[in-house]
Design goal:
about 525 residues, alpha/beta, TIM Barrel, Chondroitinase Ac, Chain A, domain 3, 2 domains, nine-stranded parallel β-sheet, six-stranded antiparallel β-sheet, 15 helices, about 30% helix
Length: about 525
């Protein structure tokens, strides 16, 4: 039997998801939160995802339904989701909604929610309880880890041969809201103690790659949380405890079935936002190093990107050799372009807009209400929905073909912004990108990727732009095409279309996703 799905860092330093012995990119969407709680409804969503050419679905699996009574586990829903994914030819990424979901404990079972003596809540500065169980509650950690281990053991028993499930998210957007730091008695006692030696040693080992914000906050080599982290003490304290919690849950599951695990982040929304206005202690970028020390069983820290600064977030989360995995993103008119950019520029492991079943205004696929619908998004026309589906279909054929180029300095990603043109150096040439129409928030941005398997050879794919080639600075030679082929991928194999010349003697990609294979030459 082939190895289990796993992450592998190759000789070039790239991190790949290996499934059935080959790299796999997860190109899909994330179900609405309640969509997986009913198999009849989930069947409709899987069919919608299949129509959108997804190869993966990210699907909530909730503690309250898995263990409705303490010690009694019900796997019928999990088995049904596995069958639906297999029936639609998709990989599955369970999202474990355990103790924490969006900094709340709404998915904890009733026997946890109603026993606050056994499972005390996090507290605000006013000593008022929050909606979340305290992350410093050892009893909830024990129970959560036991339930997650039971889930992973079941997946091992029913899916190890099929390998439908390829990775797992542990908890969801953890952190504490309403206060920068939990003020329950256990948290107050822990905050007054010196920093754990393990954390100090780990940060020292990471000194060369520390996030600049964290590095600037460090005020002392040892001492209490306040003495070492100064103004970041509250958030650093919560990051340590949330990361340790999530890591312990992941470790319990990994002992049963060792699949890659990741933790996702509710991002800081603007520069002036304070911890507690976003979940304090979650894996935001500036807490990356604390999470990396505290949570060795978490393979990736994953941003949920609803911000307009998509490219900047991708760059921050892929820094220091980290793999980029995007389990949630806006499902707006720019979704297709962002997929091209994430894979082409950052060799992303996964791209999955949230609530993808609702794209194009199909809100009947989700419950009514602002929480279910999410932030206002530019409505997608049927043509823009088709653009995403066609992009997904082309990416599934293209990405294995250009895999050796991705993340190795031989590929670029293209994401249109308000600049009229973008320029790159690639494959021994200067590549200038111009866009077919001006940038417009209400219209689909252009997107694509260009890979260079060898100098002077290019695979140009995407939509909405033109690529022109020139020699590098200091070289005055002229550039000409040796060949331009259009084509497509059939069952993962490249199939030539027309050989372009004459009136078509240029690399122009129109409004539909397409691909060109190009060879260049130079002359005096």
């Amino acid at each position: 039997m082939p190895d289990l799905p796993h992450l592998r860092r190759n000789a070039t330093g790239r991190v790949e998801l290996i499934v059935d012995g080959r790299p796999l990119k997860l190109i899909g969407g994330e179900f609405h939160n309640s969509a997986s709680s009913c198999l009849e409804h989930a069947a409709k969503v899987f069919a919608r995802y299949r129509a959108l050419c997804c190869n993966a679905a990210l699907v909530p699996v909730t503690w309250e339904l898995l263990e409705p009574d303490e010690g009694r586990f019900d796997f019928d829903l999990v088995d049904g989701l596995l069958a639906l994914a297999r029936g639609h030819g998709m990989r599955l990424v369970p999202l474990w909604f355990g103790t924490f979901k969006n900094a709340h404990s709404s998915y904890a079972p009733a026997w946890v929610k109603t026993d606050q003596r056994r499972f005390p809540r996090a507290e605000l500065a006013s000593c008022k309880s929050t909606g979340a169980v305290s992350v410093l509650c050892d009893e909830v950690l024990r129970c959560d880890a036991r339930a997650f281990a039971a889930l992973m053991a079941h997946l091992r028993d029913v899916d190890a041969v099929h390998r439908t499930v390829v990775m797992v998210q542990v908890e969801n957007e953890v952190g504490v809201l309403g206060t920068p730091r939990d003020r329950c008695p256990a948290a107050e006692r822990a905050f007054a103690q010196p920093l754990p030696a393990e954390l100090l040693a780990g940060l020292d080992r990471r000194r060369a790659v520390l996030h600049p914000d964290l590095a600037a906050a460090l005020a002392a080599p040892s001492g209490t949380w306040s003495e070492v982290f100064g103004r970041m003490a509250d958030e650093a304290f919560m990051a340590w405890h949330f990361a340790r919690f999530v890591d312990a849950v992941a470790a319990a599951g990994g002992a049963e079935y060792d699949l890659p695990c990741f933790a996702n982040a509710w991002l800081v929304q603007h520069a002036c936002e304070k911890p507690g206005e976003y979940p304090s202690g979650g894996p935001v970028a500036r807490m990356r190093d604390i999470w990396r020390v505290a949570a060795p069983h978490i393979d990736a820290l994953a941003p949920d990107i609803y911000l307009p600064e998509f490219a900047a977030v991708c760059a921050e989360y892929s820094a220091a050799g980290e793999p980029l995995l995007i389990p949630e993103a806006r499902r707006d008119v720019h979704a297709a372009a962002r997929a091209w950019y994430a894979f082409g520029r950052h060799d992303a492991l996964c791209y999955a807009p949230f609530g993808l079943e609702s794209i194009g205004g199909q809100q009947d696929a989700a419950p009514d209400g602002a929480v279910a619908i999410g932030a206002p998004e530019a409505e997608c026309t049927p043509e823009q929905v088709r653009l995403l589906a066609d992009s997904y279909a082309l990416l599934q054929g293209l990405l294995p073909d250009v895999d050796a180029c991705l993340g190795s300095g031989r590929s670029i990603g293209i994401l249109q912004d308000d600049r009229n043109a973008q320029s790159f150096e690639l494959g021994g040439f200067r590549v200038r990108i111009t866009f077919n129409k001006p940038y417009d928030l209400q219209s689909a941005a252009a997107g694509g990727l260009i890979a260079s398997p060898a100098d002077g050879e290019f695979i140009v794919a995407g939509f909405g732009f033109r690529a022109d080639f020139a020699t590098l600075p200091g070289n005055d030679a002229n550039v000409d095409f040796l060949e331009i082929w259009e084509g497509t991928y059939v069952d993962g194999k490249w199939v030539h279309g027309r050989r372009l010349n004459g009136d078509e003697y240029a690399v122009r990609l129109g409004g539909e996703p397409t691909v060109r294979r190009v060879k260049l030459c130079t002359f005096p």
